Amino acid sequence: MQFTVAIDGPAGAGKGTLAKAVAARFGFAHLDTGLLYRAVGRKALDQGRGTLDEGLAELVARELTPPDLARDDLRGALASRAASKVAAMAGVRKALVAFQRDFARREGGAVLDGRDIGSVICPQAEVKLYLDASLDARARRRHEEMAAGGAAGSLDAVRREIEERDSRDASRADAPLTKPVDAHLIDTTDLTIEQAVERAVDIIEQAL
Ligand code: C5P
């Protein structure tokens, strides 16, 4: 059985948590596509000795390996910013398309979360969800997540980082963050994780 659930939305809307829960509920495989861009950004920064070169980033994207995705420094602010910068490079995005599409059509069902899954990677996905929440709610969650992971930083700094990244992600020419017309909107501002998951599960069950 091939069945794709595409989940998009801005930083901190709860995509990752929801995607994991939905994948576990239905026994689908899960791909966090943001991790691909984080790994490319981080590795390209290392190889470029602190600067992000487009040609180098494209090469890194074409030759990404499993250990690159398992680095322990992919969740911090440096990797977030580098991810959103390399994500605006057309050659980098192109190099990552085939892997994501193959993953989406694997047997047994797949959940992919990112920014362009329903719009560019899997326009034919059986279910498209778009998660959103107020900037304050998203900043608060991201801040709590980072604090739990031992990373310091003020709530204000996290809010600014998210705002900057969202505006870059939404304004880039190639595959900007946007809600596909046929995506179901779930606003998670006032929802618990369990409530958001239940909404998603209802939508998916109707499509199965
Ligand atoms: O989802 P996450 O915050 O890990 O994504 C990091 C960055 O990767 C995003 O800010 C965005 O620039 C980029 N990204 C993207 N397309 C995706 C997933 C992530 O452009 N499908």
From TrEMBL:
The keyword Heme does not apply. It catalyses: CMP + ATP = CDP + ADP; dCMP + ATP = dCDP + ADP. Residues 5-205 form the Cytidylate kinase domain. GO terms for molecular function: kinase activity. It holds the Pfam family Cytidylate_kin. The keyword Nucleotide-binding applies. Its main location: cytoplasm. It is an enzyme of class 2 (transferase). It is found in: Cytoplasm. Belongs to the cytidylate kinase family. Type 1 subfamily. This is Cytidylate kinase. The lineage of its organism: Bacteria, Pseudomonadati, Pseudomonadota, Alphaproteobacteria, Rhodobacterales. The gene is cmk.
